[in-house]
Amino acid sequence: MPPEENGKAKATVVDMPENPVKNLTVEDMYDKEKYDLSTMEEGDVFKMLEATRDGLTDEEVQERLEKFGHNRIDHKEKSPIIKFLLFMWNPLSWVMEAAAIVAIAVSNGGGEPPDWEDFLGIILLLLANSIIGFIEQSKAGNAVKALMEALAPEA
User: Fold this and answer.
1) Where is coiled-coil annotated (predicted)?
2) What are the tens digits of pLDDT across the range 93-106?
3) How many alpha carbons fall within 13 Å on the CB side of residue 139?
């Protein structure tokens, strides 16, 4: 927060570069130590962004879209199948998978048949663990999504 003066936020004084929009990089624009648009005087913001209250021309819009891209937060969604399979890729699951392999491969020594009951029990426990984890993570993810939709990012 900028220092306050008589209950109002104190404006930041900025050394304005020549032809700012064309000469500044995206990184410069996001560096709040250099240019914090939220604390600058309104006139300085318009000057820096080379804009007016009337907005931009179509040419200026295209030029800025090419330089800065669209004003949105990109979110990549993972496949639900991949998310589910990731619950079988952790140390606890590795131990259970190893136990299943031992139950099916090693326990049939001495001419005895494989231990199918233990093998199926371990696999069912592994699947149950993964299903429960997947469902709980989905619920938590849906709650976070709802919160994110309720909050507007600062622009």
Assistant:
1) none
2) 999 999 988 888 87
3) 5
